[in-house]
Specification:
mainly alpha; Rna Polymerase Sigma Factor, Chain: A; Arc Repressor Mutant, subunit A; 2 domains; 8 helices; 0% strand; globular
Length: 173
């Protein structure tokens, strides 16, 4: 057995175990389907393995993985689903928010219906805890653009949720 290959295999296994859950969570929140998320995560790590086998350096593996995951999600969405406008979410969300659980469900549905850059930005910031600079790298944009994306995303969510709420407190995001 080649010792260099064994080390490469161990490194890849370590990277896989270190990042798989974060990538899966991101993809699941982007697509909303467990089976598809698992398939995309598998594709992400296949691409990582191929990239590493070609001895190409990666400066920041975590960001590289999220960029690949994002691109695969966008490709999947383009092929399999039309983007629903945010206004159509209003018709799908229940008008009664008597429990925190239904509010969380409504919020998740609304996030899932946001257009791509807004949904991605929120997921990366809120669910994954990325810094603005990391989000900018992943989305291929600038930090000020990320701030604008997150501002608009929060406003769209707040407006959509407040319009669907029968009565009571307004949502603060």
């Amino acid at each position: 057995m080649n010792p260099a290959r064994e080390t490469d295999s161990q490194s890849f296994t370590q990277l896989f175990h270190e990042h798989k859950n974060h990538i899966y969570d991101f993809v699941l929140k982007m697509l909303g389907d467990k089976d598809t998320a698992a398939d995309i995560v598998q594709d992400v790590f296949i691409r990582l393995h191929e990239h590493l086998n070609k001895k190409r350096p990666i400066d920041d593996v975590r960001n590289w993985l999220f960029i690949v995951a994002r691109n695969l999600c966008l490709n999947h969405l383009r092929r399999h689903r039309k983007q629903q406008p945010l206004d159509s979410v209003i018709d799908n969300i229940e008008h009664s928010y008597s429990t925190a659980d239904s509010r969380l469900t409504a919020l998740r549905q609304a996030v899932g219906r946001l257009e791509s850059p807004y949904r991605e930005g929120l997921i990366l910031k809120v669910y994954q805890g990325f810094a603005y600079t990391e989000i900018a790298d992943i989305l291929g944009t600038t930090v000020p653009a990320v701030r604008a994306i997150l501002f608009k995303a929060r406003n769209q969510l707040r407006n959509a949720l407040n319009r669907t709420q029968a009565k009571g407190d307004s949502y603060e995001l």
